[in-house]
Amino acid sequence: MNVYQSLRLSRRALGCATAMLLSLVVSTPLTWAQNVIEDVAVARGGAGRTTMTFALKDPLSAPPTVFAIATPPRLVLDFANTSNAGKAVAELSDAVVRSYNVIQAQGRTRVVLNLTKSQAYDLKVDGNKLSVSLFDAPGTSAAESSPETGRFAASSRSDGANFTLRDVDFRRGTGGEGRVIIDLSDANSGIEIKPQGKVLIVDFLRTQVPRNLERKLDVTDFGTPVQLIDTFVQGNNTRMVIEPKGLWEHSAYQTDSRLIIEVKQIIEDPNKLTQGSRPGYKGDKLSLNFQDIAVRSVLQVIGDFTGLNIIVSDTVTGNVTLRLKDVPWDQALDLVMQARSLDMRKNGNVVWIAPKEELALKEKQELEAKAQVADIEPLRTELFQLNYQKAEEVRKMLVPQTAVAGAGAAQSGVLSKRGSATVDARTNVLVVQDTPSKLEEVRRLIQRIDISIKQVLIEARVVVADDNFSRQLGARFGIGAGINNNGRNVGISGTPIGDPNQANVPTTGITTGFSPSSYYWRTKPDRETGGIIGEYINSIPYNVNLPVANPAGTLAMTFLNLGNGNLVNLELSAAEAANRGKVISSPRVVTADNQKASISQGQEYKLRVSGGVGGSSSVITIRAVLGLDVTPQVTPDGKVVLDVEVSKDSIAGFQDGSPIVNTKRVSTKVIVNNGDTAVLGGVYEEQITDTTDKVPFLGDAPFLGHLFKKTNKGTIKQELLIFLTPRVLSDTTGTVR
Question: Nearest Cα to 682, choosing from 717, 650, 642, 715?
Fold first, then answer.
């Protein structure tokens, strides 16, 4: 009989079970034992050391195997080929060692030291005596012995001054977790956080709390795992007790003087040994050091440590050698199973461990048994009234689809091979016949898919902004002169066919404001009298004629000498124009989730194009429209995925009877929050012109050169922006959410 494997010892029954085991072993001939533990003594030394001395019958050939357990704190010694002749259970009044237990089985004796806190240790062998010294590890304390205790930076102040809690608040997180927010008077306040039973204890060291914050907060209505927060004074400290419900885990972090404690619900996974949302292994840490020990014994040690009910298959055999120090127990169990090709199945608090092949075979047999039961299970018929889905579409999901030649494998359906489904198109009712378990699957499927489709209002804004500026400066300049040289007249004008006696003069005299005349004054000899006479005839061309086309203002001057017929005509013209405009087009459309919608407004031109056989002609359509094509998809987290194309076309003119279309278009796929506005794209154009018309050489002269040239400067700016705003409509009222 394997005594070690047959006993499962609890903490309360450990002493009684050990005594029974001792009596059983003592009554059996100890032919296998080569050494005997005769006495155990405990001595309290200096510097906080506790020494336990084990006296044996014969000198030790080798020190025992030792491993430590963190929670609960224990130190275990395994003596090979040794029996026990002393006490099996002893309670000690020591500050470090509460008690010890001695268990013997399979030719070895195990001594378990039950400690008050985790301790460092060293061994010393002196003949037939073994001394185990226990002491505090450097930098550790009683509060730090628990791996679940969280500590924040303790105060470095040594003046004994107290800290203060300024505020205690509670909020619900985005994931449903509860957040306890504590504002501290100093970022260096000492804080200890530890789970204790079903509550979470937060101790603020040397911290006082105002009376208005010393209270109980009932936060049940927030819908988080946290139900109650109790804050009260405890001596020189302040204690906060957080009471969650169900399975939970906590995390805490501090930013400056604000401490945030999050309590999150754990969704229990029956296939996981330890529950929680954090990745990796999360079990309490233990240390194991075994040489060639039976796998079943290691599994029992882990079971005793965790309190799990472990069932080990009879086919689990073999030994294993391992040395693990401060390793999570679930990782240690995983390593042992990997070493021996084992696997496990968890059901509640019971873990079944067996070889992988055995578990796979058993699961296969269970599936085959279920399939045989399904073949003989009676059929039932049920009617399903569909509201939003078409019954025929749902029927295609349920019934297996037969494979078509060359089209791939057949698609499996929800119904069994004995099930069937028919449709009443008039009432949109689905009639299903199958086993009760399959009908339940169909019911759950219809509940998930027969729901109203969300609708989305999409509003697009196409903004075209123009900013134009132009400035023109021009001049007209004319000279007319008549010179009588020995009876011969010499004239100057702006044309080679000028009259030798010409001069431009105002039509109504100098008092007209120096406006340029449309006539000119010509002088010529009078044959009758022999003198000089003058007359008006049509105007002559200017010497420099570079005016502004549509001037906003002009300045003209005329210089005239009637005595000799000389005339100078000068006109300056200028124009400046600024133009700013904005065109906003806003198409809107409402569509269902995952359904394409289109809206357009504009002009269509029909053009007949000749060509083809026999001179036939065809008609083509040219469109210049403002259009919006969009397909929305509402995600579960409230965002909207938009596959959108926005276009704004306009007619720029005609060429040979055909319209010239300016196209502005954007096609993209974006993700936008419900109600937010996204900028899909934009085009910015800037055109700068600087034109100069001038008389060669004269137009380049400084200052006076402006009389012989015309300048035209302009800037044209145009910007196109496209905005898109999706809004999910309410399912019932059709209003924007």
Answer: 717
Tokens coding 568? 């100078």
* 35-44 and 82-84 strand pairing: parallel
User: Could you tell me which of 578, 553, 557 has the C-alpha nearest to residue 567?
Assistant: 557
Cis ω for the linkage preceding 210 (within 30 of 0): no
Q: With the C-alpha atoms ordered 629, 634, 637, 643, is the resulting torsion angle positive or negative?
A: negative
* Strand pairing category for 519-525 and 502-504: antiparallel
CB atoms within 10 A of CB 449: 13
d(CA 89, CA 93): 14
Kindly provide the b/e burial profile for residues 661-683, where b requires at least 16 CB atoms within 10 angstroms of the residue's own CB.
beebebeeeeebebeeebebeee
Angle between helices 329-339 and 295-306 (to 10 degrees): 160
Cβ proximity of 723 and 678 under 8 Å:
yes
Q: What is the pLDDT of residue 482?
A: 55
How far is 400 from 420, CA to CA, in rounded Å?
10
Place of tokens 């806190």: 117
Q: Read off the pLDDT of residues 156-204 as tens digits, 9 standing for 90 and up.
A: 444 454 789 999 999 988 888 899 999 988 877 888 888 887 889 998 9
Secondary structure letter of residue 487 according to DSSP = T
- Can you tell me which residue has the tokens 């085959």? 368
- Give the span between the Cα atoms of 341 and 296, in whole angstroms: 14
Decide: 377 and 436 in contact? Cβ < 8 Å: yes
Amino acid at 685: E
468 touches 578 (CB < 8 A): yes
The Cα 242–Cα 484 span in angstroms is 121
pLDDT at 29: 39
Dihedral in degrees, nearest 10, Cα atoms 536, 539, 540, 543: 120
The DSSP string of 602-639 is EEEEEEEEE-SGGG-EEEEEEEEEEEEEEEEEE-TTSE
Query: Which one, of 619, 285, 628, lies nearest residue 459 by Cα?
Result: 628
Residue owning tokens 């500026």: 469
Domains of the chain are: 3-135 (2.60.40.3500), 148-265 (2.60.40.3470), 285-361 (3.55.50.30), 380-400+412-449 (3.30.1370.120), 475-574 (no CATH), 580-728 (no CATH)
Of 208, 197, 185, 201, nearest in space to 252 by CA: 201
3-state SS of 177-235?
CEEEEEEECCCCCEEEEEEECCEEEEEEECEECCHHHCCEEECHHHCCCEEEEEEEEEC
Q: Which residues contact 731 (CB under 8 A, 6 or more apart)?
A: 452, 454
Any bridge partners for residue 603, and if so which? 624
- Count CB atoms within 10 A of the CB of residue 547: 17
Q: Give the closest residue to 78 by CA, choosing from 308, 298, 296.
A: 298
Average pLDDT, stretch 692-711?
Answer: 80
* Average pLDDT value for residue range 215-233: 91
Q: What is the C-alpha separation between 377 and 735, in angstroms, rounded? A: 50
Distance CA 60, CA 128 (A): 6
pLDDT in tens, 261-296: 889 887 766 555 555 555 567 778 888 878 788 888
| Residue 285 near residue 329 (C-beta atoms within 8 A) | yes
